[in-house]
Design brief:
By secondary structure, the chain is of the alpha/beta class. The chain is built from 14 helices and 17 strands. It has two domains: about 120 residues, Aspartate Aminotransferase, domain 1 (Alpha-Beta Complex), CATH 3.90.1150.10; about 280 residues, Type I PLP-dependent aspartate aminotransferase-like (Major domain) (Aspartate Aminotransferase, domain 2). The mean pLDDT is about 95.
């Protein structure tokens, strides 16, 4: 059979719209936008038009597209073996990765379960926490509930949706979910009446202690994104809050699950955001950028104390009853190892911290627009929230599509961004150059001016 005939650009777009069901996309309104190649921080569509990747291909691309060292690592591993099951078998590449991870992870995380994506990594963490309390020495079988934040997002599998709290994403599935205890999001922007930013940390940690004091006997774990809740709208927590979360969960004997799927892998300026407040969680999850954005690979790391609760004789059935066909895939592991090599060889974390200074400056210039209500930043992660009234912090109606309009304007200038409602997300690859970062913000300025009718900027105060 002749397979040499390539479809036309129009055929590909038609097939895309007809056959491909895109994530979080209203297919009745979708207009095909098809990428054919990438290099560095730039993506190219079928016609050869160039677009700066301002969201790292959904927050996972770290070192740029088509990186020669990652390409070589993938090729080298594929010439040896592309997949080996982790069910009763291992491969040397994944073993090397599992040995290396504890050297960069928060202290005490010695054991790694491999999955394919962040949702699955959180799902594994929830199961580990539950099973741990059931079969540890001196078990506490009543500890089977979870604590999470109101606006949490932890993925799209049913367990991770259950601990999630963004109603717009998951309200439809409420009848399928298990019960979770909720805390108000420690939002540093829309604070409760009478609470200042200086008082916010103690206010929110007092709320946490009240819940833990009352419910610790039935709580298996508190699952939380350290420092910043990303898919919730880049909501940044008060400084010191995560450190207090660790102190209080230890005090009340509740496991701490750190979801670092979005904030991990160097984006915050440290490899894991937990490091910034000296926190050692009981369980840590990450995915997305672990392979530099090349292949799906995620991890759930835990302590020896938790690991030991799963050891026993076959007839005791203490095994972790969870598995993935591609768990510990050697191609993904080879990419993750080479990504870690790049961090070391290029002193990448230091460069991220330096670039974050320019990022801060460029973000601050957006404050001149009267529609900018708040700017939230963690390293090379940022969310810019647009509001109808800056003083009252009144959000634009969801169906006004303010974020989408701004991104459409930026696209006209060759900058690809994707919003979260009224929040513009800017999350470039860690390899972004200063010139490329400035170009992204030129697109942002254009998108804002187009969306709000070229309104004059506020005068600097």
């Amino acid at each position: 059979m002749d397979h040499s005939n390539e479809p036309t650009i129009e055929q590909l777009k038609q097939w895309d719209k007809k056959h491909v069901w895109h994530s979080f996309t209203q297919m009745a309104e979708y207009e095909p936008f098809v990428i054919s190649k990438g290099h560095g921080a730039t993506l190219y569509d079928l016609q050869g038009n160039a677009f700066l990747d301002g969201v790292s291909s959904l927050w996972c691309n770290l070192h740029g597209h088509n990186h020669p060292r990652l390409n070589a690592a993938l090729k080298k591993q594929s010439e040896r073996v592309s997949h080996v099951t982790s069910l009763g078998m291992a491969n040397d590449t994944t073993i090397k990765l599992a040995h290396r991870l504890p050297k960069i992870a928060p202290k005490g995380l010695e054991h790694t379960f491999f999955s394919s994506d962040g949702s699955s990594a959180v799902e594994v963490a929830l199961k580990i926490a539950f099973q741990y309390w059931q079969q540890k020495e001196n078990p506490k079988p009543q500890k089977r509930k979870y604590l999470a934040l109101t606006d949490a997002y932890h993925g799209d599998t049913l367990g991770s949706v259950s601990v999630g709290g963004v109603a717009r994403f998951h309200e439809m599935f409420h009848p399928l979910l298990f019960e979770v205890l909720r805390l108000p999001t420690p939002d540093n922007y829309r604070l409760p009446e009478g609470v200042t930013r200086e008082e916010a940390c103690s206010f929110y940690t007092n709320q946490l202690e009240e819940v833990l004091e009352k419910h610790h006997h039935e709580l298996a774990a508190f699952v939380i994104e350290p420092k910043m809740q990303c898919a919730a709208g880049m909501l940044k927590h008060p400084e010191g809050y995560f450190k207090e979360v660790r102190r209080l969960t230890q005090k009340y004997n509740v496991l701490l699950i750190a979801d670092e799927v979005a904030v991990g892998n160097g984006r915050s300026g440290t490899y894991f955001a937990s490091e910034q407040e000296g926190v050692h969680p009981d369980i840590l999850c990450t995915g997305k950028g672990l392979t530099g954005g090349y292949l799906p690979l995620a991890i759930t790391m835990t302590t020896t104390e938790i690991w030991n609760a799963f050891l026993g004789e076959y007839h005791e059935s203490k095994t972790l009853f969870h598995g993935h066909t591609y768990s510990g895939n050697p191609l993904g592991a080879a990419l993750a190892l080479e990504s870690l090599n790049l961090f070391e060889d290029e002193n990448l974390l230091s460069h991220v911290r330096e670039k974050a200074k320019l990022f801060t400056k460029l973000l601050s210039e957006l404050n001149e627009y009267e529609e900018v209500g708040d700017i939230r930043q963690l390293g090379l992660i940022a969310g810019v929230e647009f509001v109808q009234d800056r003083q009252a912090k009144t959000p634009f109606p969801w169906d006004k599509k303010v974020g989408i309009q701004i991104c459409n304007g930026a696209l006209e200038k060759g900058v690809w961004l994707r919003p979260l409602g009224n929040v513009l997300v800017i999350l470039p690859p860690l390899s972004i150059t200063e010139q490329e970062l400035q170009t992204i913000f030129q697109g942002v300025h254009y998108g804002i001016s187009q969306t709000f009718g070229n309104k004059p900027k506020l005068q600097p105060t």
